[in-house]
Specification:
- The complex is a heterodimer.
- Chain A is α/β, with parallel strands linked by helices.
- Chain A folds into 2 domains: about 170 residues, Response regulator (Rossmann fold, 3-Layer(aba) Sandwich), CATH 3.40.50; about 170 residues, Rossmann fold (3-Layer(aba) Sandwich).
- Chain A contains 13 helices and 12 strands.
- A 7-stranded mixed sheet of chain A has the order 7-6-8-9-10-11-12, with helices on one face.
- In chain A, α2 crosses α10, α3 packs parallel to α4 and α5 crosses α6.
- The longest helix of chain A has 26 residues.
- Chain A is globular.
- By secondary structure, chain B is mainly alpha-helical.
- Chain B has one domain.
- In chain B, about 70% of the residues lie in helices and about 5% in strands.
- Chain B has a two-stranded antiparallel ribbon with strand order 1-4. In chain B, strands 2-3 form a two-stranded antiparallel sheet.
- In chain B, α1 crosses α9 and α5 runs antiparallel to α8.
- Chain B is globular.
- Classes of the chains: A alpha/beta, B mainly alpha.
């Protein structure tokens, strides 16, 4: 018995040592050259949000490659100090590490509201700039922070725009109903993102006098949503607004099909319903689902010629770097946020000094139509309730058609006409695509 | 801001059909929980090891099914025949390399070892397969059987059927085969079993292998309905533990009945109370079970103690 045990132990020890050595050699960070411009990149690259964090990082990475090919920022090549934050605790510790060990002066990130909330706190304490590309919760920029800038719109905007669309367009035009006669069901996942965006949508629906038959949270980790689907089915809303992450979004839609739950219009508010993984999982069943999010698939006629060209170049480069992928909302936000930093803010600040960057950011004034998502950029000034949020960013309504997202509202950015009401599951089975 | 407040259900069409539908959905969900828990309870029953890496074995099986589908176009129900034996071998390997060396150690050490295995597997999967959600789309992924107005999801029904088959299979194994009797003997008293001439070390290896093979079956059955990603195991493993405790650690019948009970409770709490609380309800039951009847519904009294007897 001892003999066998010895052999096993030796084998395991050598195997373990070999694996450890291999892992270590991968993990040693590349030493940045003296003249490199080091910027922190804090994203969820593992764990449940990794899919979206990675997509956002891809966009940022394309921006970095492109700017380096054009000579870098102020003559220096941009290098990321990468940090993986699968949850808020890791976000805090990684932010500390980036600031104290890697000595970055600017941290870009982070896609998730929960992560951004935690990490930006660390950055603010250390007077390091936090440049947010994707987290939407309103509360993030409502703490009076001076070094925090958020390139996109508030989460409540996502919810508001969805509710507005239902009440102003879907009801009167397609259902021939007054908002006050419409029954609406809302579900949202229970973290900061879901409750902010979903909560805003609920409040907005109530402002219109719509009949909110259901407004429920649920855990994104649920493996079964049939009870919610059945509850909704028994309440018979005409329209639905859902704030879901990808796995629950897919699960819900599949179970809605199984249990034959039909609505005349269904809108997501970012996350699940803005990702190409949604149609990849449910195929043609994704068609005609609406989504409230910053614009992808927009009519470029109203962009400035410069932005039109930039969008074209970005999309081509993205597909070249990541074969088989097209940039969706998160990748585009990652690119947009990074480019603004590289092209406008850091040069105006003359370097990475946080106070100078802060000043440059507050002075930034990009007109509506001059970014690849159609908006402009002007950060809310210090003292404003949402200081640091881009006041010119807004969400639009898109619809999946032929498994691609196209803007359908507002007219200015609409690339296609919306197709409503949603076909019933029976109609879909009968072959109506 | 409407945080989880459920508005009244007046004016809604809650008829008997809907209630029965909720029940049916609950039972089918229970079938899924049962099929995942059978392997776990088997391993615990015989080796007294709480395998915290159980979820990761499920993840591995799901990935196996996914890759077989992607590269060879193999239907998940067919790849069952490959994934199950493969998982059996994985179980043997895990037992031999991680568990066997620490069988005599303190129960806390054993727990740490399986937790460590769990984390290692999650991150290895992340490294190799990345974070993307992988799903398999078959012609029957969302197929439904309609029975008198009730809608029964076919992949779920299949998973339920498989759970029943496995329970019956184990019943026959335990009652009529030498291996089955040896497994039961080791589960009851390891030393006496050794005195009876049973090769206990081999039984441990086999039970881990069989238990992991069971979760391999679960993985193949789940793929048409779910998606896999490196941390998918964590979504299921906690519920599997609740089922195993409720049913009785080491009892196959317990795993099935426990699974069904949890599934039905979850469905009804979600429907009648609030979706936000559906897991909370069965966790409360879990705690009560641990307090008042820790050996579960069908377990042996005293069987709930971790570690060897």
């Amino acid at each position: 018995m001892a003999r066998r045990g010895m052999k096993r132990r030796t084998f395991l020890r050598t195997a373990g040592a070999a694996l450890g050595a291999a892992a270590l050699s991968q993990a040693l960070p590349r030493r940045a050259a003296a003249a490199d411009m080091k910027i922190g990149a804090l994203f969820p690259l593992s764990g449940p949000m990794a899919l979206l964090g990675e997509d956002m990082f891809r966009g940022a990475e394309v921006a970095r490659m492109m700017i380096n090919e054009q000579g870098g920022v102020l003559g220096n090549k941009v290098v990321w100090a990468k940090a993986d934050a699968p949850d808020a605790t890791a976000a805090t510790s990684e932010a500390e590490r980036l600031i104290n060990v890697e000595k970055v002066k600017v941290i870009a990130g982070s896609y998730s509201s929960a992560l951004a909330f935690a990490a930006s706190e660390v950055a603010e304490r250390n007077k390091v700039v936090y440049w947010e590309f994707g987290a939407t919760a309103d509360s993030i920029t409502q703490r009076g922070f001076k070094y925090l800038f958020r390139v996109l719109q508030l989460g409540s905007n996502l919810g508001d725009v969805a509710a507005d669309y239902m009440a102003q367009v879907v009801g009167p035009t397609f259902l021939k109903m007054d908002p006050k006669q419409m029954k609406v069901g809302l579900i949202y996942e229970d973290t900061l993102y879901g409750t902010t965006t979903g909560g805003a949508a609920v409040a907005r629906c109530k402002e219109y006098g719509m009949n909110v038959v259901l407004a429920e949270t649920y855990s994104q980790k649920a493996v079964d949503l049939s009870s919610i689907v059945l509850k909704l089915r028994s309440l018979r809303p005409e329209v639905m607004i859902a704030t879901q992450y990808i796995s629950d979004g897919i699960l819900f839609w599949r179970q809605a099909k199984e249990l034959n739950f039909n609505v005349k219009a269904f809108s997501g508010t970012g996350a699940a319903h803005g990702l190409p993984d949604f149609p990849k999982a449910v195929g043609d069943d994704a068609n005609y689902v609406l989504n409230s999010d910053p614009a992808v698939g927009l009519n470029t006629a109203n962009l400035t010629p410069r932005a039109q060209q930039e969008l074209k170049v970005f999309r081509e480069r993205f597909s070249k770097e990541y074969p088989g992928r097209t940039p969706a909302v998160h990748a585009t936000l990652g690119y947009l946020g990074s480019m603004v930093l590289f092209k406008h803010v850091i040069p105006a600040a003359g370097g990475l000094d946080p106070d100078k960057i802060r000043e440059a950011a507050n002075q930034l004034d990009i007109a509506d139509g001059d970014t690849i998502m159609g908006w402009g950029i002007k950060f809310a000034p210090p003292g404003h309730k949402n200081a640091g949020t881009n006041l010119r960013a807004y969400s639009v309504i898109m619809q999946w058609q032929e498994q691609q997202l196209y803007v359908v509202h507002p007219e200015k950015w609409a690339m296609r006409k919306v197709v409503l009401p949603l076909p019933t599951w029976e109609e879909r089975r009968a072959g109506k695509k | 801001m409407g945080r989880g407040r459920s508005l009244s259900l007046e004016g809604s069409a809650i008829d008997t059909l809907t209630i029965i539908q909720v029940l049916v959905s609950g039972i089918l969900l229970g079938g899924i929980y049962a099929v995942i828990s059978i392997g776990l309870t088997m391993i615990f029953g015989v080796t007294r090891i709480i395998n915290f890496a159980h979820g990761e074995f499920l993840m591995l099986a799901m990935y196996g099914t996914f890759w077989l589908f992607t590269f060879y176009g193999m239907d998940p129900y067919v790849s069952l025949l490959i994934v199950t034996p493969a998982m059996f071998l994985v179980g043997l390997l895990a037992q031999w390399s991680v568990i066997q060396p620490i069988l005599g150690a303190a129960p806390l050490m054993q727990i740490f070892a399986t937790v460590g295995l769990s984390v290692a597997m999650q991150n290895a999967a992340l490294l190799v397969w990345h974070a993307d959600y992988r799903t398999v789309r078959t012609s029957y992924s969302t197929s439904v059987l309609e029975v008198g107005g009730l809608l029964v999801s076919i992949p779920r029904l299949a998973a339920f059927g498989v759970a029943v088959l496995m329970a019956v299979g184990f019943f026959l194994l335990f009652k009529y085969t030498y291996l089955g009797k040896a497994l039961r003997a080791v589960a009851q008293d390891r030393r006496s079993a050794m005195l009876m001439g049973i090769n206990v070390e081999r039984i441990y290896l086999l039970s881990f292998g069989i238990g992991t093979a069971c979760v391999g079956v679960a993985g193949a059955m789940l793929m048409p309905m779910y998606y896999t990603f490196p941390t998918v195991g964590t979504y299921f493993v906690l519920t599997a533990f609740v089922v195993v405790v409720l049913g009785g650690m080491g009892s196959m019948t317990g795993a099935c009945v426990g699974g069904l009970i949890i599934g039905v409770i979850e469905a009804f709490s979600g429907f009648l109370i609030a979706p936000a609380l559906k897991e909370a309800v069965y966790f409360v039951i879990f705690i009560l079970m641990l307090l008042f009847r820790p050996w579960g519904l069908f377990g042996q009294r005293g069987a709930e103690e971790v570690g060897l007897k």
